[in-house]
Amino acid sequence: KNSQDPKISIVIKNRNIVIEDNGEGISEAHLPNIFDEGFSTKPKGGQGLAYCKSVLEDHGATISCRSKKDSYTKFYISFPKEDTQ
């Protein structure tokens, strides 16, 4: 919301997805908690990222995030190799 030229990029390669924006970013203090049930920096309690992480982990995938306040946020999603048995 603070960017003059907002952008979102999604890169898919093999079993990995990287989603990046150039928005307001997430503060270092909040970053460790963004996947916690009920965590939010907004008035309503957060469910979305906790739910995403739960669903991904149920399927053997992982999700992580890197961010720099007032610069960018990147989410990394990695899916497991298919079982070929």
H-E string: EEHEE
Strand percent estimate: 25-35%
**Roughly how much helix do the residues carry, as a percent range?**
10-25%
Distance between the termini: 47 Å
Main sheet characteristics: 4 strands, antiparallel
- Helix count equals 1
Quick overview:
With 85 residues, the chain is of the alpha+beta class. Helices cover 13% and strands 31% of the residues.
Protein architecture, described:
- This protein has 85 residues and is of the alpha+beta class.
- The chain has 1 helix and 4 strands, in the order ββαββ.
- A 4-stranded antiparallel sheet has the order 1-2-4-3, covered by helices on one side.
- The radius of gyration is 14 Å and the shape is flat.
- It starts with 7 loop residues before the first strand and ends in a 7-residue tail after the last strand.
Quick tags:
85 residues, alpha+beta, 4-stranded antiparallel sheet, 1 helix, 31% strand
Question: How is the secondary structure organized here?
Answer:
Elements: E1 8-13, E2 16-21, H1 48-58, E3 62-68, E4 72-78
Antiparallel strand pairs: 1-2, 2-4, 3-4
